[in-house]
C-alpha cells in the first residue's frame, strides 16, 4: 500500500490527492510556483485578505502549511482589513516597474468574504484598472454565501465583477478550485486584468480526491487576440484615461479568447442533433448533472434525446460566439444559475439578433409565463433542478425511472411543507463562560447596538441589544438617529477584531460628530467568530485605551475579570479607571452620564479560546471547579440569570427542578458564583471522576 501522509496535499505531485477546497487554494499557489520554475521564471506569491465565512479557514491553512511556503516563495500577510489587502496586492503588480525587482513577477491572491469584497471595491477597481503584471497575475477570491447561512447579506458577486469589467471564474468542484486558480493566474497575466474567482461553501468547505499531477493542465495562450502596443500588462507611466479603453477594447476580448482557447466554458453533453439546451454556471452545473442522472439521462441517452449542456466556468465576460453556436438548432435553452441572471442576460443579448426561427426560447429565472422555475430565496436545491428539468423535457422524455424519482421528490417536498414548525427555535448562543454573557448587558433604561462578532448574538437575547451595522460602521447608525429621537445616549458593542479591522475609525467619526455614545470595546483576545485566529497585529487593552484617548474620547474605563493585571500608572492614559467586571452596571451608568464619546474596554478572554489554550498547556487551567449542592439549591435560577451560561443546566429531582454545572462544558469563568448563593461549592484542586 502506498505510504500516505498529511503533507500529501501539498507535496504529492502525482496520483490522487485528498484535499479540502481551502487547502486546494494553497496547493494551487504551490503548483503555480512549480509551473513558473519549469518555465524558467523566478516568481513569488503574495496572499493577503481578511477572513470571513466561507473564507474563514484560508489563514489557518496557510499557517498550518508554513513549512511548504518558503520553498515556493509564498508570502502570506493576514491583512488588517480587506481593502488594505487589495492595495497591497496592487503593489505586488508594481514590483517590476522600478528596476529593482528581485523576481520576474509576483502572482497574488486576494481573499475575502462577501461583505469583505463589498467594502473593498474602491481599492479593487483601482488596482484592476491599473492591471496585472506580465509575470505576476492576481486572483480576487470571494467566498459567496448564497443562502445567508453564515453572513448577514446575500453574497453572489459575479455581477459585481462584471460591473468592474473583471473576468470571473467559478469552479464547480475542488479539482476546479486548483485548476481554475492556475487558469486564473495565467489569464490574469495574459489579459493584464485581475481575475475574479468565486467560491461558495460547496466548493471551499468541502473535501474531495483530486488529480495531483501538475501536467494534467496544458494552458494555452491564444494567438488570435489583438494586443496593443505596449502590451496588456500593468505599465508605468500610465494614465487613468487609458485604462477604460484598454479594458474594453483589448482586455475583455483577450479574456474571451483565453477562455475559449482553454475551454473554460465547454459543452459537456454533446449530440449530433441537439434540440434542448441547458446552460449551467459554476456549481449549478453539478446540480444539472445530478438532475440528469436522477432522471435516468446519461450522456448516451442525452445524445439520443438531443439534450446538450454548456458548462459555464467563466460567468463573465460571455463568449457570444460560443453562445450562438451552442444555440444553433435548439428549441429551448434552460439557464440554471444561482441568484443572478448574468448568464441568462448575456445569452439573450447574444441571441437577440438571430433571425426568427433560429432563436430558441430562453428560460431561466422565469418560464415563458413569467413564473419562477427555481426558488430564488434562499437558494434552490438539486431536487428543485431535477423537478424543473423533468417538467421542461416532459414533452419528449419521461421514463419509469424519471417518474418514480419525481414522485419521490414531490412526496418529500410535500412532507417538508406539511411539517409543522418547531414550537421552539434553537438560536445560536454564547459559549459557556463567554465574556459577552456579562459584557453585553446594559443598565436599566439603556439600549445597545450590536455589531459584527460573536457579541451580535446578544441581539437575540432579552437584554436591550438591538439592530446592528456593517463591520467598521459601529456607532454611525446612532449618529444618524441622535438628532431626531428623544433618546439621549446609546451603547455600542464592538469586538476587538472589528476594532483592529476598521472600528477605530468609527470611534473617530463619532468623536467628530460630537455624538453622545459609549463604545464597549470587547477585548476577548481572539477573532472568535471565525475560529479563534489571533488579532492581525499587536493590540492590547492598554493600546486601545491610548488610541481612543488620543482620538479625543471623554473617558476610558477598563473593566476586567482580572483587574489586578492593570495599574493606572502603567501604559494607560491619564484618568483611566480600572474596575472589576462586577462593577459593570455602575460603570456603565457613570459612562452614560458623561456627555460625549466614552469608551469601556471589557477585557476577558474568549471562553472557547481559553479552552483551546488550556488543553495544550498554553494557558493555566485554574485548579478550581464550581459545583451546585442540589440539596441546598432552591431552583430559583438566579445563577442562570447572573451568568447567562449554558453550562448551568436544569436538574430534575424529587424535590423539584434544581440546577447543576455541566463540568465537561464549563469553561470556568466563574460568573455563576456572582449570585452569593449558598448552594455553590468551590472545589480547589479536584478533578471530575
Ligand atoms: S464557571 Fe459557571 S458561568 Fe463559568 S462557564 Fe462554568 S458554569 Fe458557566
Ligand atoms: S467563541 Fe468566544 S467570544 Fe464567541 S461565543 Fe464563544 S466564548 Fe464567546
Describe the protein's architecture and organization.
The protein is of the alpha/beta class and 689 residues long. The chain has four domains: 16-261, Rossmann fold (3-Layer(aba) Sandwich), CATH 3.40.50; 266-418, Rossmann fold, CATH 3.40.50.920; 436-609, Thiamin diphosphate (ThDP)-binding fold, Pyr/PP domains (Rossmann fold), CATH 3.40.50.970; 622-684, Alpha-Beta Plaits (2-Layer Sandwich), CATH 3.30.70. It is built from 23 helices and 23 strands. The strands form six sheets. It has a six-stranded parallel sheet with strand order 3-2-4-5-7-6, with helices on both faces. A six-stranded parallel sheet has the order 14-15-16-19-17-18, with helices on both faces. Helix 4 (82-93) runs parallel beside helix 6 (121-130) and helix 15 (382-393) packs across helix 16. The radius of gyration is 29 Å and the shape is globular. It binds iron/sulfur cluster (SF4) (2 copies). The site of one iron/sulfur cluster has 15 residues, from loops.
Amino acid at each position: 500500500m502506498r505510504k500516505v501522509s498529511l503533507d500529501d496535499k501539498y507535496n504529492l505531485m502525482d496520483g490522487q490527492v485528498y484535499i479540502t477546497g481551502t487547502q486546494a487554494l494553497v496547493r494551487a499557489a504551490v503548483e503555480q510556483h512549480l509551473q513558473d520554475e519549469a518555465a524558467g521564471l523566478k516568481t513569488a506569491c503574495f496572499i493577503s485578505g481578511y477572513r470571513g465565512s466561507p473564507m474563514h479557514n484560508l489563514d489557518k491553512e496557510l499557517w498550518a502549511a508554513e513549512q511548504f511556503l518558503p520553498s515556493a516563495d509564498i508570502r502570506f500577510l493576514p491583512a488588517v482589513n480587506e481593502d488594505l489587502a487589495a492595495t497591497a496586492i496592487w503593489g505586488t503588480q508594481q514590483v517590476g516597474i522600478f528596476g529593482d525587482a528581485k523576481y520576474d513577477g509576483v502572482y497574488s491572491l486576494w481573499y475575502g468574504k462577501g461583505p469583505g469584497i463589498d467594502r473593498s471595491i474602491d481599492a479593487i477597481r483601482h488596482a484592476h484598472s491599473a492591471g496585472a503584471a506580465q509575470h505576476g497575475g492576481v486572483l480576487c477570491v470571494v467566498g459567496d454565501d448564497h443562502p445567508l447561512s453564515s453572513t448577514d447579506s446575500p453574497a453572489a458577486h459575479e455581477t459585481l465583477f462584471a460591473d468592474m469589467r473583471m473576468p470571473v471564474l467559478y469552479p464547480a468542484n475542488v479539482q476546479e478550485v486548483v485548476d481554475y486558480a492556475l487558469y486564473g493566474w495565467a489569464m490574469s497575466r495574459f489579459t493584464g486584468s485581475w481575475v475574479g474567482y468565486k467560491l461558495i461553501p460547496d466548493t471551499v468547505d468541502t473535501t474531495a480526491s483530486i488529480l495531483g499531477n501538475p501536467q494534467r493542465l496544458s494552458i494555452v495562450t491564444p494567438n488570435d487576440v489583438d494586443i496593443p502596443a505596449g502590451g496588456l500588462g500593468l505599465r508605468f507611466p500610465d494614465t487613468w484615461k487609458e485604462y477604460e479603453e484598454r479594458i474594453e477594447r483589448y482586455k475583455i476580448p483577450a479574456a474571451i479568447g483565453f477562455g475559449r482557447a482553454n475551454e473554460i466554458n465547454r459543452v459537456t453533453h454533446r449530440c449530433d442533433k441537439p434540440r434542448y439546451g441547458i446552460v449551467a454556471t459554476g456549481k449549478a452545473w453539478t446540480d444539472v448533472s445530478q438532475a440528469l442522472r436522477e432522471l435516468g439521462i446519461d450522456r448516451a441517452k442525452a445524445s439520443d434525446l438531443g439534450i446538450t449542456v454548456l458548462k459555464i466556468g467563466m460567468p463573465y465576460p460571455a463568449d457570444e460566439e460560443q453562445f450562438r453556436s451552442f444555440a444553433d438548432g435548439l428549441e429551448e435553452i434552460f439557464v440554471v444559475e444561482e441568484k443572478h441572471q448574468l448568464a441568462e442576460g448575456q445569452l439573450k443579448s447574444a441571441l437577440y439578433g438571430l433571425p426568427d426561427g433560429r432563436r430558441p426560447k430562453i428560460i431561466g429565472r422565469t418560464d415563458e409565463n413569467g413564473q419562477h422555475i427555481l426558488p430564488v430565496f434562499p437558494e434552490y436545491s438539486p431536487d428543485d433542478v431535477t423537478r424543473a428539468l423533468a417538467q421542461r423535457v416532459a414533452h419528449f422524455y419521461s421514463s419509469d425511472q424519471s417518474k418514480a424519482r419525481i414522485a419521490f421528490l414531490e412526496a418529500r417536498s410535500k412532507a417538508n411543507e406539511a411539517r409543522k414548525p418547531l414550537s421552539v427555535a434553537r438560536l445560536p448562543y454564547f459559549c459557556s463562560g463567554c465574556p459577552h454573557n456579562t459584557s453585553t448587558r446594559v443598565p436599566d433604561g439603556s439600549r445597545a447596538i450590536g455589531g459584527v462578532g460573536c457579541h451580535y448574538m446578544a441581539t437575540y437575547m432579552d437584554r436591550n441589544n438591538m439592530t446592528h451595522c456593517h463591520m467598521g460602521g459601529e456607532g454611525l447608525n446612532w449618529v444618524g438617529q441622535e438628532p431626531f429621537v428623544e433618546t439621549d445616549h446609546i451603547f455600542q458593542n464592538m469586538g476587538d477584531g472589528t476594532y483592529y479591522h476598521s472600528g477605530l475609525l468609527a470611534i473617530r467619526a463619532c468623536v467628530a460628530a460630537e455624538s453622545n455614545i459609549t463604545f464597549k470595546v470587547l477585548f476577548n483576545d481572539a477573532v472568535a467568530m471565525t475560529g479563534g485566529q489571533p488579532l492581525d497585529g499587536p493590540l492590547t487593552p492598554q493600546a486601545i485605551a491610548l488610541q481612543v484617548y488620543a482620538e479625543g474620547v471623554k473617558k476610558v474605563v477598563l473593566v476586567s475579570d482580572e483587574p489586578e493585571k492593570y495599574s493606572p500608572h502603567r501604559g494607560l492614559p491619564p484618568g483611566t479607571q480600572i474596575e472589576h467586571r462586577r462593577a459593570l452596571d455602575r460603570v456603565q451608568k457613570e459612562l452614560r452620564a458623561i456627555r460625549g464619546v466614552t469608551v469601556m474596554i471589557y477585557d476577558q478572554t474568549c471562553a472557547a479560546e481559553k479552552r483551546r489554550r488550556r488543553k495544550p498547556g498554553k494557558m493555566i487551567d485554574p485548579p478550581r471547579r464550581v459545583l451546585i449542592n442540589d440539596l441546598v439549591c432552591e431552583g430559583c435560577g438566579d445563577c442562570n440569570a447572573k451568568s447567562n451560561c449554558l453550562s448551568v443546566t436544569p436538574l430534575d429531582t424529587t424535590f423539584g427542578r434544581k440546577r447543576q454545572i455541566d463540568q465537561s462544558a464549563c469553561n470556568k469563568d466563574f460568573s455563576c458564583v456572582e449570585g452569593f448563593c449558598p448552594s455553590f461549592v468551590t472545589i480547589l484542586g479536584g478533578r471530575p471522576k
